[in-house]
Design goal:
The complex is a heterodimer of chains A (about 190) and B (about 575). By secondary structure, chain A is α+β, with helices and mostly antiparallel strands. Chain A is about 35% helix and about 40% strand. Chain A folds into two domains: about 130 residues, PH-domain like (Roll); about 45 residues, no CATH class. In chain A, the strands form two sheets. Chain A has a six-stranded antiparallel beta sheet. A three-stranded antiparallel beta sheet of chain A has the order 7-8-9, with helices on one face. In chain A, strand 2 and strand 3 form a beta hairpin. In chain A, helix 1 packs antiparallel against helix 2. The longest helix of chain A has 22 residues. Chain A starts with a strand and ends in a 5-residue tail after the last helix. Chain B has a domain of about 180 residues: Cytidine Deaminase, domain 2. Chain B has 16 helices and 15 strands. In chain B, helix 9 runs antiparallel to helix 10 and helix 12 packs antiparallel against helix 13. The longest helix of chain B is centred in the last third of the chain and has 51 residues. Chain B is α/β, with parallel strands linked by helices. Classes of the chains: A alpha+beta (about 190), B alpha/beta (about 575). At the A-B interface, strand 6 of A face strand 7, strand 12 and strand 13 of B.
């Protein structure tokens, strides 16, 4: 069963949170940011080409134009493949682990899977980012030597940066599944 | 508790039978390795499993039953399958059944001695058996050694499948009492090329070892250890590179089989790196010798050396005049300038003496490019060092003079203030000097102080030239280092067979149906290219800056000689 709700990100752009429950111990939470707008793409391309024409008019060298086209193409490919994140999702499978996926605009997906034995907890933390204080969700990893210690903090939803109301929804969903592992009998 | 069943996707269309695999009780998961079909004799199955267990050291056992009915469910078959649970007693007994072509299977568990008879949730995870068997899991680089016993759950699964290789050696064409289905049951894979290579590698290795022992015997002979020659060998970077490559060849040609993954990858990387190096070297050689380019190169070498010498002479004339408007001390200026000019004159004469032989020397030296591109680059770096030897000499003269001056000045400055350096206590103490000592000291101090700008200017100019040459040589060595240490085999493996180098796994949720167990697909998450290079980098005799920026500046200011690139074998002073 799937449901979708609209929220705002920390910088004010609209984002959508989609929750899917696959089974009693498996949930998928996906935050989708806005797609690449044709407006901004055309604006950027026109700016670059106007600058190239200006340079061409000054220097009379046609290499400037070919270089501008080349730069636009390469820059677009790099932006779509390495920078623009369309969707960030969290798949929580009780007793297996937590999987964090980022899907880029070109279709590339980069995934990390964290086993349940390494996860200590999922919490909402505050951070100072530029001139703002924002909330972010993170996974705390267990330190193998020290049962009370934390070895690493993995922040989630870094590019879409949802606000606190969205984060609370995600937090509640995660905690429902994480609690199941505490009520289940502990295995050695 | 949740029960996880890892099912190989190759067995999805297998006929009915019993499931064999490994039960990992700490994680409440069952890794299914194969399906044994009817008809079978339970005693023979138990015998076979006992043998497999002995050979692979993996506790393989019968885990449950699998029924693939093309028509509707047959009641008698299901009872028969339950009875099997009593013959091969395993706790818990897993029953998976598939109807027709449906994707959604029903899975149930029989627990005879269950303490809490609650409904357990079952997760069905499909995995590609061949890929999981061949892949090598790379743990994150910051795991400590004691995590070995607290090994991650995934590595247990990868381990189980990898070690059960002998189970996958029987295919369906073998005549035997047991009929299995696994990823190789349609026919065992083998490659003729690999088998041929394995056969030829042993005599090739022996031949190579013999040749290498001859070469290293010659290298270690006493003749080459006399003082001038050994000094020369240690200074030339070509000899170091050749020694490095010799070491690599010794690693490849050793008879011992590689113990683990790391050693195997290292051998393969060295082999591919050597191959590509020699191929590029031969390419370069063929390009150089075509159209007699080597001859042209030799012809332009002398004019270039002459040109450099002329530029240096112009520079010295400029310094002897009024460089940048500064006023130099006339006498000292003339002395230093004439000294350096005579030095350049000597150098040019020597070069002109050598000029008829240059072409022949270059021709034969160019032949050694067939040993590899790295050797050719090292030879280039050595030629640059030899051609700019006079710049090095000037730098040493200027630095020594400047250094002497600075030390003299600092010592006389202390005398000027009435202090002295106490060598015993390593500190500055006050001291009472006689009048004549003070008089001479102050006089010398004044002379040195006013001659400082001239010496400092010469030192500055020659230091800058020397730094330029050092930077050029450093860039060439960086390139050589790159070619030496890049793990090409691992990168090509990551490109073509990315499942072999795994950083982890990723799960994909497949279509679900209510009432049926959760279906997931486990895929291999390959290691990133940066991770591959970091894990499998070949060690080199790397040259990296010896000093930090601060100490380098301090040395420059005091006039100490700098050798910016440190070699691994050098002792620290």
């Amino acid at each position: 069963m799937a449901e979708e709700r609209r929220f705002l990100s920390a910088s004010g752009v609209p984002i959508a949170l989609r929750r899917r429950q696959h089974s009693a111990s498996c949930r998928e939470l996906a935050v989708r940011g806005p797609r690449l707008q044709l407006r901004s793409l055309s604006a950027a391309t026109s700016a670059v080409w106007l600058a190239a024409y200006g340079l061409f008019a000054l220097s009379e060298n046609s290499m400037v134009l070919s270089a501008a086209i080349f730069i636009t193409l390469i820059g677009l490919i790099i932006y779509l493949h390495f920078v623009k994140i369309d969707q960030e999702s969290l798949l929580v499978i009780g007793s297996l682990g937590i999987q964090v996926t980022s899907s880029y605009a070109s279709g590339k997906e980069s995934t990390t899977f964290i086993e349940m034995g390494q996860v200590k907890d999922v919490v909402i933390n505050e951070a100072i980012h530029m001139q703002k204080v924002i909330y972010y969700l993170c996974i705390l990893l267990q330190d193998p030597e020290d049962p009370q210690g934390i070895s690493e903090v993995v922040p989630l939803f870094q590019s879409s940066k949802p606000r606190l109301d969205c984060l609370i929804e995600v937090y509640k969903s995660c905690q429902e599944i994480l609690e199941q592992r505490k009520t289940a009998p502990q295995s050695s | 508790m949740v029960l996880k069943v890892f099912f190989p996707s190759c067995c999805s269309s297998a006929d009915s039978g019993i499931l064999i695999g490994r039960w990992i009780s700490e994680q409440n998961s069952a890794v299914i390795l194969a399906v044994i079909h009817f008809p079978f004799i339970p005693v023979q199955v138990k015998q076979y499993l006992g043998e497999v267990q002995r050979v692979t050291k993996v506790s393989v056992s019968v885990l449950g039953s699998w029924s693939n009915s093309k028509q509707e469910k047959e009641e008698s078959l299901s009872e028969f399958l339950e009875d099997l649970g009593t013959i091969f007693c395993h706790e818990p007994w897993i029953q998976i059944s598939k109807e027709g072509d449906s994707k959604f299977w029903s899975c149930s568990i029989l627990q005879k001695h269950s303490k809490n008879p609650q409904e357990e949730e079952i997760i069905l995870v499909y995995y590609d058996q061949r890929k999981v068997m061949l892949s090598h899991l790379h743990p994150p680089l910051d795991t400590a050694g004691q995590r070995a016993e607290d090994a991650s759950k995934l590595s247990a699964i990868f381990d189980t499948v990898a070690r059960s290789q002998v189970l996958f050696m029987t295919d369906r064409y073998d005549e035997g009492p047991i009929k299995l289905t696994h990823w190789q049951s349609d026919g065992v894979e083998a490659s003729i090329i690999v088998e041929l290579l394995k056969q030829t590698s042993v005599p090739a290795c022996m031949l190579l070892t013999f040749l290498l022992s001859l070469v290293s015997g010659i290298c270690r002979s006493r003749v080459l250890k006399f003082w001038p020659l050994s000094f020369l060998w240690s200074k030339l970077s070509t000899c170091e590179q050749l020694g490095h490559r010799l070491q690599h060849l010794q690693v490849i040609s050793s008879n011992k089989k590689a113990q683990n993954q790391n050693q195997l990858m290292r051998k393969a990387n060295i082999f591919v790196s050597l191959l590509i190096d020699v191929a590029l070297g031969i390419l370069l050689m063929s390009w150089l010798y075509r159209k007699n380019r080597i001859g042209h190169l030799a012809d332009t070498l002398i004019p270039v050396a002459d040109h450099v010498a002329e530029e240096l002479q112009d520079l010295l004339q400029w310094l002897m005049g009024a460089p940048a408007g500064l006023k130099m001390n006339r006498a000292l200026d003339q002395v230093l300038g004439r000294f350096f000019l005579y030095h350049i004159h000597l150098w040019i004469s020597y070069i002109h003496l050598l000029s008829p032989f240059i072409e022949m020397i270059l021709w034969y030296v160019g032949l050694s490019a067939c040993l590899g591109l790295t050797v050719a680059l090292c030879i280039l770096s050595d030629i640059i060092a030899l051609l700019t030897f006079h710049i090095y000499c000037f730098y040493v003269y200027g630095a020594r003079l400047y250094c002497l001056k600075i030390y003299g000045l600092s010592s006389l400055w202390r005398l000027f203030r009435g202090k002295k350096w106490n060598v015993l206590r390593q500190r500055v103490d006050s001291c009472s000097y006689d009048l004549d000592q003070l008089f001479i000291g102050t006089l010398l101090f004044t002379i040195l102080l006013f001659l400082l700008p001239t010496t400092a200017l010469y030192y500055l100019v020659f230091t800058l030239l020397r730094l330029l040459v050092v930077i050029v040589q450093g860039l060439i060595h960086l390139l050589v280092d790159l070619i030496d240490s890049l793990p090409l085999y691992s990168l090509i493996l990551r490109l073509c067979r990315s499942y072999r180098l795994a950083a982890g796994v990723k799960f994909r949720v497949l279509e679900q149906q209510d009432g049926k167990p959760l279906r997931l697909l486990m895929q291999i998450n390959p290691l990133s290219y940066g991770g591959v290079v970091q894990t499998y980098r070949l060690p080199t005799y790397s040259c990296y800056p010896r000093d930090s920026w601060a100490s380098l500046c301090k040395k420059l200011f005091l006039g100490e000689l700098i050798y910016p690139w440190k070699h691994k074998g050098d002792k620290q002073n």
